Amino acid sequence: MLGRVNHVAIAVADLAAATAAYRDTLGAAVSQPQALPEHGVTVVFVELPNTKVELLQPLGDTSPIAAFLEKNPSGGMHHICYEVDDIILARDRLVEAGARVLGDGQPKAGAHGKPVLFLHPKDFFGTLIELEQA
């Protein structure tokens, strides 16, 4: 069911500083910031030859990333995103197997404009998983 790793997401308190560190210190190509109000975040993608790193900053006080940063003020890994061929088929198979899909269970448009779902971290050994339709 799982395809390639699409990205690893890192929550950051200061998106400009994180972007500069990846761009200027590590020499990576970095996208422009993109606000995603439906997810409560502003994101930047660090482009790598084999995948991407997504830097997440809260967009407002009710952002799930704001809550994450309250517990982890220095930031840190937030989730890993895997590609799937058919997100509805993947969701249905996972629910049948007992996995919990966060939210209302319906895919939402992610940063790449493709449908995404998140799976409860308690079902996957403490790791929040995002699925993105390939």
Task: Describe the structure in your own words.
The structure is a single chain. The chain is of the alpha+beta class. It has one domain: 2,3-Dihydroxybiphenyl 1,2-Dioxygenase, domain 1, CATH 3.10.180.10. Helix content is 22%, strand content 38%. It has three helices and nine strands; from the N terminus they run βαββββαβαβββ. Strands 1, 2, 3, 4, 5, 6, 7, 8 and 9 form a nine-stranded mixed sheet that branches. β4 and β5 form a beta hairpin.
Enumerate the spans where pLDDT stays under 50 for 5 or more consecutive residues.
none
Beta strand count: 9
Q: How many discrete structural domains? A: 1
Largest sheet: 9 strands, mixed
The CATH architecture name reads Roll
User: Assembly state here?
Assistant: single chain
